[in-house]
Amino acid sequence: MPAFTAPDGTELAYHVIGEGEPLLCLPGGPMRASACLGDLGGLSRHRRLILLDLRGTGASGAPADPATYRCDRQVTDVEALRAHLGLEHVDLLAHSAGGDLALLYAARHPGRVRTLALVTGRARALGVDFTEEHRREAAALRKAEPWFADANESYERIWAGSGTDADWDAVAPFFYGRWDTAARVHAATDVEQSNEEAAELYASPGAFDPAAARAVVAGWDARVLVLAGELDSGPLPRVAASIAELFREAETVVLPGAGHFPWLDDPRRFTEAVTRFLGQGH
Length: 282
What we know:
Blueprint: E1 3-5, E2 11-17, E3 22-26, E4 48-52, H1 75-85, E5 90-95, H2 98-108, E6 113-119, H3 132-140, H4 148-159, H5 165-170, H6 181-188, H7 190-193, H8 196-202, H9 210-218, E7 223-229, H10 237-244, E8 250-255, H11 262-265, H12 267-279
Parallel strand pairs: 3-4, 3-5, 5-6, 6-7, 7-8
Antiparallel strand pairs: 1-2, 2-4
């Protein structure tokens, strides 16, 4: 398995799937191993996916200093990977909480990013995030689902601060467009793929400076795709559109019937949307 050394000496691993031009992929979670991305619904048939295992996840080593799990401190890992691969510019794809890391990387190294695809991406780095009200709004769309009643009760306990591990397991269907076998298998790997200590530190105080990041991306000339799922709450489609408005050249795509993992819910539409975006201007 290919690996490289981060500036602080941490050994980091990455996975390569497919052929063609490289596409740097950052997983969400936060701090979930890149295995959760799979081959992004077959996107590997069109691009060579470079899937980074963030420090302390997957096959990557744990850092000597846990404070380096903070999102902004992992920007140097992404830059080290770019240099290791010998790429002058990168096409960058980030899922969920990985969106924050991608945005911070773009803010610090704007000239290195050719395109940025935020897949149901968080944007706390720009001062935008989902809320409990957003979760409730998206949950209400699933009232006809057979699992809704039990899952919604678990959501209520989580929002009240009394949620258990069982409650977190019970709300998993809300994050998928279809609660089928593929979704169940994917959800079942969450805990084993995630570094909980790192996740708690990822967005710790000092990680984000939204005003500074907004100032950079407002004048950025790279193209941006903000891809949302119709049924997702983080972000809701209209929140995704508000994220896109912060860039000079960005488009929003909403996948019908998709949740937080759109490459599982609708692989064909997902890969079509991303490959079309990446193909523009090349």
